[in-house]
Amino acid sequence: IYSFRFIMTDAIVLAAGKSIRFGAANKLLTNVYSKPLILHVINAICKSEIENIYVISGSDHKKINEILNKSRVKVIKNNNRNDGINSSISFGIKNLDKRSSSVMICLADMPLLRTEDYNSILNFEKNKGNASSIIVPFNDGRSGNPVIFGRHFYNELLLLKGDEGGKKIIDKNKMNVVKFSSKSKGYFFDVDIQSDILKLNSQ
To answer: What's the predicted TM-score (pTM) here?
Structure first.
């Protein structure tokens, strides 16, 4: 007897942060290889096998919406963004398709992730994941992003507060974590300060 698991993984892309360490400008709107940083990230996700894509924006909602107007994403403004990153995660969960079986929490400042990287973790989740699993990229003991949460964790994600992201849930449910081993540097690099952009543009 073969058991069939309906899999529909949606993505929540966190793009409402204040990027305080970066400086006055919104890093997501800063050009990398002559395109806004967020566009590189969204293009890679849009070409992947992910189902629905929800971009959670903040004070730059209008600009982000304009940049992504030709992408297959739904840009939603989080008016409670000052309550921390978890308000964006919770807001995204509320907007998921009712049939969603898992959610990939993506960061909008990870431009080295390629479509193949997103597909690799999605395929891993199809083969090794279930409703109660948390898929986390790992390399040499270091964890990365994006992380895929099974629908069993949707209620906990809804109730998150502050700026911890999904880390609190991961730490509390270590038995449910399935490590996705990868050497691809995209899972472990995010733009944090302005020199990160300079490094990218000089490559």
So the answer is: 0.91
